[in-house]
Amino acid sequence: MTAEWIADVSHRLEMAADILREIAARAWVSSGLLRLRLCFLGQRIAQASRRLAFAMQITSNSRRRYLRRIEDLHAAAVRCLGLTCTEECGAAYEGVEIVASELASIAAELRTLEHLHAERLEIAEQARPHIGGAS
To answer: N or C terminus: which one in the chain shows less Cβ crowding within 10 Å?
Structure first.
């Protein structure tokens, strides 16, 4: 993965964390539970952003770890969406939906990169000359 992609994703995650912080700080978020969930999710996303920002390159193993982390964050954002509906906080719904969509996009990009990596390995394996007898 390129350093540019890593920097871009780190920036997108930080923007998502900022959106959640702004929503949580608004007076119209009257539910303490919703505010707590938004703050916690924002902190977790900001933490993922900082970790990713320090990575100059992502190996296959770390790519899988980041994918699991992003998928977990996406699931948490979807739960926050449900909570905004339950609390009838429509103004928060739109912002949380943006964050959930961004996390889903990043997860899809990571899955695509993992798939491309697996294809490259398979092609390289097929291109290797086979040593030995059986054909």
So the answer is: C
78-127: per-residue pLDDT in tens? 999 998 888 777 888 999 999 999 999 999 998 888 777 666 666 766 77
- pTM score: 0.81
Handedness of CA 8, 9, 14, 18 (dihedral sign): positive
Enclosing H/E stretch for 92: helix 90-127
Mean pLDDT of 17-28: 89
CA distance 78 to 64: 21
Both tokens of 3, joined, read 């350093």
Hey, which bits of 7-95 come out as E strands? none
Which amino acid would we find at residue 6?
A: I
Residue the block writes with tokens 């977990």? 72
Beta carbons of 104 and 78 less than 8 angstroms apart: no
Both structure tokens of 1: 């993965």
| Domains and their CATH numbers in the chain | 3-126 (1.20.1260)
